[in-house]
Specification:
Strand order of the largest sheet: 4-3-1-2-9-10
Helix content: 40-55%
Strand content: 15-25%
Number of strands: 10
Number of helices: 12
Radius of gyration: 18 Å
Distance between the termini: 35 Å
Bound molecules: D-glutamic acid
Largest sheet: 6 strands, parallel
């Protein structure tokens, strides 16, 4: 029988996007220690080949396993879509991706069955979201679109309504999604919820935006509780952040996105 497990939870993304999962985990599981790795020196992953994404993913997971984590949350749509199936069986801790929980939330949300999917180029080209959605419901009408400029813009903090650069890019990328009349949009890259205000303003209030990071974190919180893998303490979990590029840049943006000061909790590391 499973027992309480005091080890930390590991979370990783290519950059800041996984903080959307981190925020939900901190809120749902306030007693848990959580280690976050942002591979900021190599972001974006979504424009790279499958081989490279798999290589980076193995390095990210190896780093977190070195911290003795009890579970790994792949808070990255690209890695979840492109690499996870191939590598998941190679580890003896559970590896959680974002796709399945996100698809579940989207299907529960849609009323018309018209669903949009946006993600990085690698995620959209993989067709992984479409396959899962169609397997669950063959009648869904899907419109998907890669949004390659979103990740670099988010990593540069260009997320605010009224910023003419992000507004222009959103309008161009999401025009076909708007034209298709979807009632639900999967934000298939964990960076995209940071653009929720701008995207919401463009698509209007009748389109539900599904955060893949949040959906994944909700699933992890539920599964760890069901399997009795949480810590005994229910408050006061420690949060540590590791990045592969500038600490100062990450501290500034992460504090903004998480709405709490992370200065002093961020460390620069090398991945092998
Ligand atoms: N947050 C990652 C994702 O969910 C961004 C990928 C990238 O680095 O391009 O896909």
């Amino acid at each position: 029988m499973a027992e309480m497990d005091n080890r930390p939870i590991g979370v990783f993304d290519s950059g800041l996007g996984g903080l959307t999962a981190m925020a939900t985990l901190m809120q749902r599981l306030p007693g848990e220690d959580i280690c976050y790795l942002g591979d900021t020196g190599r972001v974006p992953y979504g424009v790279r080949s499958r081989e490279t994404i798999i290589k980076y993913t193995r390095q990210d997971i190896a780093f977190l396993l070195g911290l003795d984590v009890k579970a790994v949350v792949v808070a990255c749509g690209t890695v979840s879509a492109v690499a996870l199936e191939q590598i998941r069986g190679d580890y003896n801790v559970p590896i959680y991706g974002v796709l399945e929980p996100t698809v579940e939330v989207a299907l529960a949300q849609t009323k018309t069955g018209k669903i949009g999917i946006i993600g990085t180029e690698a995620t959209i080209n993989s067709g992984a979201y479409e396959r899962l959605l169609r397997a669950a419901d063959p009648d869904v009408e899907l419109t998907s679109r890669a949004c390659p400029l979103f990740v670099p813009l988010v990593e540069n903090g260009r997320v605010h309504p009224g910023d003419v650069v992000i507004e222009t890019v959103v309008a161009e990328y999401l025009a076909p999604i708007k034209a298709a009349g979807v009632d639900t949009l999967i934000l298939g890259c964990t960076h995209y919820p940071l653009l929720e205000a701008v995207i919401g303003r463009f698509l209007g209030p009748n389109v539900a935006l599904i955060s893949s990071g949040r959906a994944a974190a909700e699933r992890v919180a539920r599964d760890l509780a069901d399997e009795d893998q949480l810590r005994a303490q229910k408050e006061g979990g420690m949060h540590r952040y590791f990045v592969t590029d500038s600490v100062a840049g990450f501290e500034k943006l992460a504090s903004l996105f998480l709405q709490q000061d992370v200065s002093g909790d961020v460390e620069r590391v090398e991945l092998e």
